[in-house]
Amino acid sequence: MRKYLSCAVLVLAPVVLFNTAFADDHQPAKRPVDFAAPAPINGTTSAIGKTGIVVKIQSAAIAKDGTITVRATLVDADGLPLDRLGVASKGPVSMSFIAAYIPAGQTQYISYTTSVANPSIPGNTNPPQTQAANDSGGTFTTNAIGDYTYTFKTKAPVTFDATVTNSIGVSAQRNLSEYGTYDEWSTTSNDVFSFVPNGSPVSVTRSVVTTNACNQCHDPLIGHGGSRLKVELCIMCHTPQTINPDTKLTQDMKVLIHKIHMGSSLPSVKAGTPYRIWHRGAWSDFSTVVFPQDVRNCTTCHAQGATQADNWKTNPGAAACGSCHDDVNFATGLNHVNLAQPDDKQCKNCHSATYGSDFDASVPGAHVIPANSTSLPGLVTKVIKVDNATPGNAPIVTFSVLDKSGNPVDISKITSIRVVLGGPNTDYQTGPGAIRVSENPNATKGTSGVYVYTMTNKIPAGAVGSFTVSIEASNTVTLLPGTVIATSAVDAAKPVEFYFSVDKSAVVARRQVVSTDKCAACHANLGFVHGGTRANTQECVICHNPSLVDGTSNQSVNLAWQIHSIHRGENLTNPYVLGTTNYQDVRFPGDLRDCTACHLTGTYMVENVGAKALVTSTGGFTKTTPPISAACQGCHDDIATASHALANTTILGESCTACHSASESFSVDRVHQRIF
C-alpha cells in the first residue's frame, strides 16, 4: 500500500524529507520574552531586537567593470531595524547573496556566483563540477543600523549584457539561540530583487511555480537546514549549470523537483535504480517518496500566480518531461514511439498545449486523471427523507441517484451502491443505543431515479437523539471504448450525509472537526481511499468511530487517532500498523504543529472537543482511552504521554482543560506554537 502522505521537502541534507528541527514536538517552539530595550540608537528607545527577521533588497547595480553591489535592509518582526553584528540589537545576522541573470532569448538563470564542487564519496574519481552558489568573500558597508550595502567578491564579466534581467537573492539568518529560540522560520528571511543594469524596466522573469503553491503542502517550504524559504531563491542556484559531482545528476530545479515528487513512481525506481543524491557526506534517498495526490495534477504546483504557470503545457522538453518519464530515451526514441528527438524543437508538434481529447498526445490530454474526466456520466446521490426511524424499527430511506446531467440512473447496473446508517451523531460508534451498518440496495426498484429502500437493520432500542444516513455509489466505466487509448475509470458520487432524529428531538448534525477542502490542499481528492466513494471527511467519521479497531493489529482506527498517527508517520515512537501496512515511513511535508492545516478553527482546542465516548485502544497502552487523550496520543504515542493522560483522568473524566485550554500556560496553541 502506498504511503500516500509522503511528500518531499526540498532539503538536500542527510534527513531530507522532514525537518529535524521540529521532529520532536515534545519540545514545543519557544517564544522568547521580548528583549529589553537597548541603549538609545538614533534617538529612539524602542525595544530593538524582538523575535523574527525580514530582509528586503532595496536596490542593486552592476558597474561597467562588473562590480556587483546590493543594498538590503534588516528589521525584526515589529519592523524595527536589526544590527547585522548583533550588538545594537539581539542576535547576529548572517547574510548570503547570489547573483544571476537570464540570457537574452532564454528562460532560466545562469549564476555569476559559482563554486567548484569535488566528489566526496571515497574513491569517486568523477571530475569536479562548477555549480551555481552563494558569493563568498564580499564586503559589507553599514549605511545605518539595519541598512547595509554588500559588494560581491565575484564580478560579472566585463562583457555582461546590461539589457537582460539580473537578479540578486539573499538569505538572512538571525541567531537567537542564546535567547531561547530554535525555530528556524522565526529567524530566517529570503528576498529576491530583479533589475536590468541599464535601467530599463524588467520584462523577463523566471516564475514557473510560486512559493505559495509549494506551501499548500510544505507549510512552509524549507530547504538546506532552514536557510531557503522561497522557491524564487531556490531557482537561482538550481539551474542547468549545477551538476552533482558524485552522481553526475543535474540539480536543475525542473528536473530535481519533478523527480523528488515522483519518487517511488519513477520508472527507474520501479526498475530497481534508486533516485538519490550524495550531499554533504550522506545520501539523500528520494526513492520512497509518494506524492500525496495523483502526480498528473500538474496545476497543483503550476498554479495561477506564476508568470509562466502554463509552462508545463506550453513548453514541453526532454529535461522536464524526461524527469518524470525517465524510461524515455529521447536520443534513440526508446519508449517514445520509436521517435528520436535530438532537441526540443519538435516537441510542440505532437505535444501541444491544446487539449483535444482525454489521453491524447497533447500535454493536458496526456495528464488527464481518469476519475476527473469530463466525459464521465457522473453520479449524484441525495437522501430525500428517512421514515420509520424510531428505536426498534427499520428506517425507510427515500433517495435519488442521477447522473450529472440530471438523468435517472438504474442502480442495478452500477458497480457499487451502499446505504450507510450511523449514530448517534454525538459519537458515532457501535454498542447499546448506537449503530454503524452498510447495506446494498441495488435490487430496489425505482422511478425516475428515485428509490425507496427499507433497511434490514433497525434503529437500536434505547437510541436517542440524531442519526445519519448517507449513500455511497460508484460505477466503473470505460472511457474512449474501442480505441487504443481506452481507459478504465471509477465514476464515484460524493457522499452527502442526511441527519434525522429518532426521538422527535431537534435534529443535530454531526460536529465537523476537519475540512475536506483542507485535506484537498495536499490530497486534491480524498477519493484515493476506499475506491473513491468516501471523499468527504464527514463520511469518514461514520465508520472511523471510537469503537473501530483494525482486525489485524488491534490499533484504533478512530479518525482522530488514525489520521494523527498516519500524518505523524516516521516520527512516531512506536510503529502505527494497520493490517500489513506500517505507516512509520510516512513523511509529512509540512509542520505537524500547525493544527489548522487540517482542523477548522478552534476544533483542536481541548475545551472544544465534542467527543465523549471512550476510544477502543486494544493495540495501545490501555484497553480504552478517553477522547481527548486519544486524539493527543495519535501523535504523542510514547508511554510518558499515555501515563500523563492516565494520571490526569479520574472517574469524573479527563482534566486536560485544567492545563491545556486556551487561557492556560500549556494551551494547545502555545505548545504547538510556530513563529514565522
Structure description:
By secondary structure, the chain is α+β, with helices and mostly antiparallel strands. The chain is built from 15 helices and 27 strands. Strands 15, 16, 19, 20 and 21 form a five-stranded antiparallel β-sheet that branches. It has a four-stranded antiparallel β-sheet with strand order 1-2-8-7, with no helix packed on it. Helix 3 runs parallel beside helix 6 and helix 11 runs parallel beside helix 12 (627-633). Mean pLDDT is 90; it is low at 1-49.
Protein traits:
single chain, 676 residues, alpha+beta, Immunoglobulin-like, five-stranded antiparallel sheet, four-stranded antiparallel sheet, 15 helices, 27 strands, 14% helix, globular, disordered N terminus
Task: Record the SSE blueprint.
Blueprint: E1 54-62, E2 67-75, E3 93-101, E4 110-111, E5 114-117, E6 129-132, E7 139-144, E8 147-155, E9 166-174, E10 188-195, H1 211-214, H2 231-237, H3 253-262, H4 267-270, E11 276-279, E12 282-285, H5 311-314, H6 318-324, H7 347-350, H8 363-366, E13 380-387, E14 396-402, E15 416-423, E16 435-439, E17 446-447, E18 450-454, E19 466-479, E20 487-492, E21 497-501, H9 516-523, H10 537-543, H11 559-568, E22 577-578, E23 581-582, E24 615-616, E25 624-625, H12 627-633, H13 639-647, E26 649-650, E27 653-654, H14 657-660, H15 668-671
Antiparallel strand pairs: 1-2, 2-8, 3-4, 3-9, 5-6, 7-8, 9-10, 11-12, 13-14, 14-18, 15-16, 15-19, 17-18, 19-20, 19-21, 22-23, 24-25, 26-27
Helix pairs in contact: 3-6, 11-12
